[in-house]
Design goal:
Structural class of chain B: mainly alpha
Distance between the termini of chain B: 26 Å
Order of helices and strands of chain B: HHHHHHHHEEHHHH
Number of domains of chain B: 1
Strand content of chain B: under 5%
Oligomer: heterodimer
CATH architecture of the largest domain in chain A: 3-Layer(aba) Sandwich
Strand content of chain A: 25-35%
Radius of gyration of chain A: 23 Å
CATH topology of the largest domain in chain A: Rossmann fold
CATH class of the largest domain in chain A: Alpha Beta
Radius of gyration of chain B: 21 Å
Order of helices and strands of chain A: EEEHEEHEHHHEHEHEEHEHEEHEH
Number of strands of chain B: 2
Number of helices of chain A: 11
């Protein structure tokens, strides 16, 4: 594991922002970190990068405790935490030079990372002339400067247009193929599903679920299943009476139901008994479905 | 550490606020020097009234040394404000601008980062005092010329020209130490908050309270005066006493340095344990 968080707990006043959180980030993975606003994502990431000290627990990077070794443990980590903020009155190049001095990295890396993030031709412009998207790319550039083994990106696509988002997604893919572990927090579930090999979900400071993306989608308690039937409306009316069917709707003429995996056979049986022709059953659980089911369950419990 | 100080100097020199002190001095000093040139007769009369019965004055006593001495007497209350303009931002601005999210995640200890900021503030403070010296002594000697320095302080002290340079050097060096202490005070407040104005107000408030305490001759104030750091700000005046009171200077220096260490200690404790939430 390149990063391990053990029993992380952090309170601000009476509010527990993160509660006994355990996470393991495997080497070489692209790890998605999901949760609604105020769920403790940013606090967790800040504890992982030594910006916030946990009340209890430790974060280990390559086996070295951040809390015991201080910022030395971050020597192989690059990070962009939330919005990318720089000294606006200085150029991108000067800003990166300042950070390179802190990293102890060679200035030759600056051109490399600026070119890689598409800012090579604006290197000498003051940051205050940059758009938010360009600042965000500069934020990723500074994170890459020290040739990190682990890249931590907190909402990296914030403020980016769809093209910018795609660029970041492609870049994350490239970095991952180079063996860099990427830990990424985002609200964009579709994006996360496209690029992440692993995922963890957090709500109200507690970890809900973590693991390989495919395993989680496959073993979800609530599978979203598309069922091709000849009478969609009748099917919906019929299935709406069963409490174990959590969601039942129609999209483009195809019936979509959310049920537990062991209930599929029973569902098909009901449809057939009611003279509805079933021609195909396709599992279609998306990360969004998984997220909504998990976060929904947590919200209900706390309500 | 040098590369970190280099970084901080880049930030300080890039902020327009850092130049307010230099601009102010550049406007004020020519005016003062102009005043010395055109108002020297009345000044000479006023100044020499106290000793004209004992001394025969040949030529003018108004020169760059006397001008510098008078300017320093007038400005030593105001220069701290100019110092705080840069020191107030030293830590707080990085917090409010979100820069700590870039710098504190790097493999450099917070103590080193804080120390580099403090040393850069010291360089700024020293530059401002040296800039003052450049105007009053450097440009002043071109405009007013040089000569013996006559100091009236519990008597009359005439310092010959060659010694006056050394005394001025000592005086400005001591003034730099005082301003570094002011810088550390403001720096302490800067490490506690996330905006640059609060530390300036906090530091100036304490300094003004200190000035009031040492100015009002009440028994209680006289008793607490030794513990008020502002009462040591006039250490630069000791450079113009005869003989130079080295023991007193060392004592005052040790008090100023002790206060600086305490202020920096508090800054370090706050900063190292600070959660970066902005």
């Amino acid at each position: 594991m390149i990063l391990e968080a053990k029993n992380l707990t952090k309170s601000f006043g009476l509010r527990k922002a993160v509660n006994n959180l355990n996470l393991e980030i495997p080497n070489g993975s692209v790890f998605g970190f999901l949760g609604p606003n105020g769920s403790g994502k940013s606090t967790t990431i800040r504890m992982m990068t030594a910006l916030i000290s946990p009340d209890v627990g430790e974060v280990f990077i390559n086996g070295k405790s951040i809390q015991k070794n201080g910022s030395k443990a971050l020597s192989n980590v690059g990070a962009l935490i939330e919005r990318a903020d720089f000294h606006n009155h200085l150029s991108a190049k000067t800003n990166l030079k300042m950070l390179a001095r802190m990293d102890g990295t060679d200035f030759s890396n600056i051109k490399k990372v600026l070119d890689r993030t598409g800012l090579g031709n604006r290197a000498n412009d003051k940051v205050k002339t940059y758009s938010q998207g360009m600042k965000q790319r500069l934020g990723i550039a500074q994170a890459l400067m020290g040739n990190p083994e682990l890249l931590i990106l907190d909402e990296p696509t914030n403020g980016l247009d769809p093209e910018g988002m795609k660029e970041i997604r492609d870049l994350v893919g490239e970095l991952s193929s180079e063996g860099i572990t990427v830990f990424i927090s985002s609200h964009l579930l579709d994006e996360v599903q496209k690029i992440c090999s692993h995922v963890a979900m957090i709500s109200l400071g507690e970890l809900l679920i973590a693991g390989k993306m495919q395993d989680l989608l496959r073993n979800s308690e609530m599978l979203m299943t598309e069922i091709h039937v000849d009478q969609t409306e009748k099917s919906i009316n019929l299935l709406s009476n069963f409490k174990w069917i959590h969601r039942c709707d129609e999209k483009n003429g195809i019936l979509r139901v959310s049920i537990a995996p062991n209930k599929i056979a029973e569902l098909v049986n009901i449809l057939v008994q009611n003279k509805i022709l079933v021609s195909a059953i396709i599992p279609k659980t998306s990360l969004e479905d998984l997220y909504l089911s998990k976060i929904g369950i947590k919200s209900k419990v706390n309500a | 550490m040098l590369s970190l100080i280099h970084n901080e100097l880049l930030v300080i020199t890039g902020r327009w606020r850092s130049y307010i002190g230099f601009i102010g001095i550049s406007i004020l000093m020519p005016l003062i020097l102009w005043g010395f040139v055109y108002g020297s007769e009345s000044l000479q009369n006023d100044y020499s009234r106290g000793f004209e019965g004992s001394f025969l004055i040949v030529g003018s006593i108004i020169n760059a040394f006397l001008a510098t001495y008078i300017i320093m007497n007038a400005l030593w209350i105001h220069i701290p404000f100019l110092i705080t303009l840069a020191a107030g931002d030293a830590v707080a601005a990085d917090g409010s601008n979100g820069i700590f999210r870039l710098t504190l995640i790097r493999p450099v200890s917070r103590l080193k980062i804080l120390l580099s900021k403090l040393l850069a503030s010291y360089i700024y403070s020293a530059s401002l005092v040296i800039f003052c010296a450049f105007w009053s002594l450097g440009i002043g000697s071109l405009v007013l010329g040089t000569g013996d320095l006559i100091v009236i302080d519990n008597g009359i002290l005439v310092i010959n020209e060659s010694e006056a340079w050394l005394r001025m050097f000592l005086s400005f060096s001591l003034a730099i130490i005082v301003m570094c202490m002011v810088s550390t005070l403001c720096f302490m407040f800067s490490s506690m908050v996330n905006n640059g104005i609060g530390p300036i107000i906090g530091a100036m408030f304490l300094i003004i309270v200190g000035y009031i305490i040492i100015a009002i001759p009440l028994d209680f104030f006289t008793k607490i005066e030794p513990y008020v750091f502002v009462s040591y700000f006039n250490i630069w005046l000791d450079a113009f006493k005869d003989p130079i009171p080295w023991v007193v200077i060392l004592k005052k220096l040790s008090v100023l340095i002790t206060y600086s260490l305490i202020f920096f200690g508090i800054s370090a404790y706050v900063f190292i344990n600070k959660d970066i939430k902005t």
